[in-house]
Amino acid sequence: MNVENCCIVIFGASGDLTFRKLIPALYNLHKVGRLGEHFSVLGVARTEFSDEQFREKMRDALIKFENASGETLDEFCSHLYYQAVNTSDALDYVKLLPRLDNLHDKYGSAGNTLYYLSTPPSLYGVIPECLAAHGLTTEEFGWKRIIVEKPFGYDIQTAKALDVQIHRFFEEHQIYRIDHYLGKETVQNLLVLRFSNGLFEPLWNRNYIDYVEITGAESIGVEERGGYYDGSGAMRDMFQNHLLQVLAMIAMEPPAIINADAMRDEVAKVLYCLHPLSDEDLKNNLVLGQYTATEIDGEMVKGYLEEKGVPEDSNTETFMALKCEIDNWRWAGVPFYVRTGKRLPTRVTEVVIHFKTTPHPVFSQNAPENKLIIRVQPDEGISMRFGLKKPGAGFEAKEVSMDFRYADLASPSLLTAYERLLLDAMKGDATLFARTDAVHACWKFVQPILDYKAQNGRVYEYEAGAWGPKEADKLIAKHGRVWRKPSGMMKKKV
Ligand code: BG6
């Protein structure tokens, strides 16, 4: 599929995401010739900028974040335009009509328009309505698509309400809900690993898998985003979307073919099979934590309550660990232990598939278990761990590993998540975007956790730089297991 000529309209163009992620992604796509010559980008926000001022601001960002320079940079910036609009006032959107007409004429983009909502979520319902008031959502003259950033709602009620609002003006095929984890090469690779090899899939079920660990750890704290994060917490910020999507990739059934409908049918199906959590389940299988100040490498690191924008009595979780189960034939009885947190010892996202041990231990009582470690980031790769004979007398088994590193591929020209997803949306390929039923299934699963937390949820303290509160270790130890403590296992050995 090729990219058709189009105009990309970014709402929230004066914000952080635009100059840190969106403009750099578009620049890189342009640099490698993936956008063609006939695209334009119209930034929209309340702040008054001229086209020139907007270009300068974006140029600075590209120099800073992408080391951009020379003709390619000038050429790219010449495609950037800006229009100030009061985004909550429908009448003001009239200013977009002549701008868009001119850009479509100039670039031959025949009305094709990709709207990107990179605004505060309170505007997600408003902008579609205001666009529709001026006929800017109909597909009579070119396609119209809308990319919506997370969060898609704050809980199940608001998520449903938002869906209704957007669907009043856009049809499902026009809506692209972005979850940048689905744009990560290594997350997509989970599917290829599973469904293009005869080796793994026969073992990929309750008969051979003992349990699965999914970790999304970050070493940074909430940084400048305390205000946003405090209303969100680890549950809404990482678990409800990114980690449940990763879980779906691990657990879904193979789609009959790879296209947006077939893939997303399977994703939604497995998410609807998540075992609903009762208060009793949550009492036993959920641990929430919040980081406290400590000294790391001689430097004092702030606790969550000292972060900018965070109320001093906040009960928001910056860590969560949860045991979930999937009620279907493939996974019945296999626990999925999922954890995520800020200010953990390292930044790592990984999945560990723990296989069952042999039925009878011939060589030693402590034979290493077989596991497949899928490192999503950083040092992307896959490591297979199994037991081999320890050299010397006797028959003692020791753990060895077979490792694959993405960095070893001859031309690892990976697109970043935003590059891949923007490109897909321009091509009209929604395979890697969350469909409404999957989003609903995630909220349906998460809502009881939010309710439980609101009523009884204790948030334990953990020191910044630790793997969460010790209660998280107890959660998994109850079942005779320990969390893997990931380190730089995939680093190239020199
Ligand atoms: C974002 C969250 O969606 O994902 C952030 O809002 C988090 O809090 C980020 O840091 C993690 O993304 P990545 O790609 O760095 O793992």
What does this structure look like?
- It catalyses: D-glucose 6-phosphate + NADP(+) = 6-phospho-D-glucono-1,5-lactone + NADPH + H(+).
- Residues 191-484 form the Glucose-6-phosphate dehydrogenase C-terminal domain.
- Pfam families: G6PD_C, G6PD_N.
- Belongs to the glucose-6-phosphate dehydrogenase family.
- Residues 9-189 form the Glucose-6-phosphate dehydrogenase NAD-binding domain.
- The protein is an alpha/beta fold.
- It folds into 2 domains: 6-178, Rossmann fold; 185-412 and 435-478, Dihydrodipicolinate Reductase, domain 2 (2-Layer Sandwich), CATH 3.30.360.
- The protein has helices at residues 16-31, 51-66, 70-77, 96-107, 126-133, 156-167, 185-195, 226-230, 233-251, 260-272, 279-285, 417-427, 436-456, 470-477, and strands spanning 6-11, 39-45, 80-84, 113-117, 144-148, 175-177, 209-217, 286-292, 294-296, 299-301, 319-324, 336-341, 348-355, 371-377, 381-389, 397-405, 459-463.
- A 9-stranded mixed sheet has the order 16-15-14-13-7-12-11-8-17, sandwiched between helices. Strands 3-2-1-4-5-6 form a 6-stranded parallel sheet.
- A hairpin with a 7-residue loop joins strand 15 (381-389) and strand 16.
Task: Quickly describe the structure.
NADP(+) binds at residues 46, 150. The protein is of the alpha/beta class.
How are the strands of the biggest sheet laid out side by side?
16-15-14-13-7-12-11-8-17
Whole-number average pLDDT? 93
Radius of gyration, whole Å: 24 Å
Return the domain count.
2
- Ranges with pLDDT <50 over ≥5 residues? none
Tell me the CATH superfamily of the largest domain. Answer: Dihydrodipicolinate Reductase, domain 2
What is the architecture of the largest domain at the second tier of CATH? 2-Layer Sandwich
Broad structural category: alpha/beta
Report how far the terminal alpha carbons are from each other.
41 Å
Ligand list: 6-O-phosphono-beta-D-glucopyranose
Strand content: 15-25%
- Major sheet: size, sense and barrel closure? 9 strands, mixed
CATH top level of the largest domain is: Alpha Beta
Number of helices: 14
- How many β-strand runs? 17
Helix content: 25-40%
Within the CATH hierarchy, at the fold level, what is the topology of the largest domain?
A: Dihydrodipicolinate Reductase, domain 2
So what's the overall shape? globular
GO molecular function, one term: NADP binding
Active site: 242
Catalytic activity: D-glucose 6-phosphate + NADP(+) = 6-phospho-D-glucono-1,5-lactone + NADPH + H(+)
EC number: 1.1.1.49
